[in-house]
Amino acid sequence: MTIADDLGLLMQNHDDEPQAAAEALHKIAELDVPTDQLGRFTWLVDHVIGEKFDRWSEAHELIVKVISRHASLPQPALRHAAVAAHLSGNLLAGMALERRMTQDSVRADQATIAVRASAISFSISPARAVDAAVALLSITEGVEQWGDASGVDATIASSLNNAVSALLELDDETVGHADVRVAMIQGAAAARTLWQRAGTWVNHERADYLCALVFNRIADYANALEAAERGRQLIETNGSEDVDRAFLLLESARALIGLARKAEGVERLRQAETITQEWNDEGLTKWFEEKAQPVRDLAG
């Protein structure tokens, strides 16, 4: 097997066996990782060794060991290396890597925001949720000041997706904190803005789905319904994406029930369930059922 094959397998199973994944990454670091695989390698090191095990110094050292063999690095590798440097406490190394990102027509402020957004997405935990939310607001404010497209729009949008999704999973008390609520709303909105500039129509409707998730989570059902229906309309206008349509219908159902429009909500739920009858993916069906059951409970 090639290094690309090994990294491909790790991308699939690292969450199931993180300790084995960490050991495999150390073994790969002894080899000459091809330039086109540096992005995946550095991300896995950040996610597994850094985020999952909170061993950021180890992650930083491992990444440096591999990237030092290369004269030039792709943007993803530079960004992930900078994240590991900053989260390990090596500020100067992180800033040096950010500076190298500007060699590819990325402004210095954009490089910094891209690295910080990624770092925040790796740093969200129940104990640090409010701090992470405040930090996330600095990212959204920075994005709002750009006003034009950049080479890191999609990168930052992905990090915002991950960060907001992590906040959504926290307990009700934490989500009820004012800073967390605002960070989720503004984070999802900023991601949507960036995807509008850098993504496909699928990215656009998925950005609407994230907005719907946020608004339903905080019981802002009118805005949740608007976002979910907007995403569903994008699918109907542009093509076929039945999996996404089913989940958007669920959010519409949840919002409609919250707005005391139960009959309409039950009909959206029925439409979503009808779509799933064509699925043959056990994992996907299980995920849908987990999302659908609370809506069924609300519907009575």
Question: Main attributes?
Answer:
Serine Threonine Protein Phosphatase 5, Tetratricopeptide repeat, 16 helices, globular, MalT-like TPR region domain-containing protein
Report on this model:
- The chain has 300 residues and is mainly alpha-helical.
- The protein folds into three domains: 1-104, Serine Threonine Protein Phosphatase 5, Tetratricopeptide repeat, CATH 1.25.40; 120-199; 200-208 and 218-300, no CATH class.
- Helices cover 77% and strands 0% of the residues.
- It contains 16 helices and no strands.
- It has helices at residues 3-13, 18-29, 38-52, 56-67, 75-87, 91-101, 108-121, 129-146, 153-168, 172-175, 178-198, 201-217, 221-238, 242-258, 262-276, 282-299.
- The longest helix has 21 residues, at 178-198.
- The chain is globular, with a radius of gyration of 20 Å.
